[in-house]
Amino acid sequence: MRRMLLRRLLLAVPTLLGVTVVVFATVALVPGDPLAAFLGPGAPPEARRELTERIGLDEPLPVQYAAWLGHALSGDLGTSISGQRPVAELLGPALGQTLILTGSAFVLVLIGGTLLGAAGALRPRGLPGRLSGALSTLSISAPQYSVALLLIAVFAVQLRWLPAGGTHDVFGDGGSLDLVRHLALPAVAAALVPLGLTARVFRAALGSVLAGDLADSLRARGLSRTAVLWHCVHNASPALLTIAGLQLAYLLEGVVFVETLFAWPGLGRLLYDALSARDFPLVQGGVLIVAVAFVGINILVDTAHAWIDPRVRS
Q1: Which of the 8 DSSP states describes residue 57?
Q2: Which of 78, 174, 215, 275 is the most exposed place for a label (fewest CB within 10 A)?
């Protein structure tokens, strides 16, 4: 177990190094002039030259990358061009808001996907199985952007049950209940596609175990229906764990549209605004944080998979 974890950690080093190269090169090659976005198109040449030297844009691209990577390894992600503040100070609060939204959506994905998948596996040809298949297909097929707009139109504009955006009401108390009300619609919109995928994978895994030799042998031993189901769920849990981990990573990096539509002050919305302003240090730092989180989640999923299934350890 320890050797497997050590091997995964060692493999993560070149992966992250490759991610930093791709992130830096991609952001550096994005069309646009960050100096014009900050100073304005009519800025004097002296101001442009001074800012270029200060942020290191006058150096060759490999030199810029080496300097950026060295500072990033020491925890310094640079200074935002548009905000004139350290990138880490801007990313911290935004990352916290994204984790709140991602965690809430992931709870919905885990609970809803497990229940839908179990219902379809237990009664594949009955009404529960048909409903499970229809709902999971609809969840996967529905465009996230359109569903988010539909949720706003119905629950925020027509019924006025929930707010359309933000994290707290302007004249509210700013408590937990106020946060939950603002969190409901974006969490549902973000969880829609991952929930359907999780339900379909868990349904297939649990259905395969229920139809296999393990379930027959457990029934032959006289175990109750609940005990048989519990053993089958345990054997199908690695598939659930794998797809849930992948969907958690997807949620963490794929909530840009949701945060933008619902005015949620998270990392996705911050990166969208930074890219619009050509604030390349902020974009590079934010994408790096997301990449590190993605790799970390995959390592945790592999470790949990090995802990549940001893066959994976070898």
Answers
A1: T
A2: 174
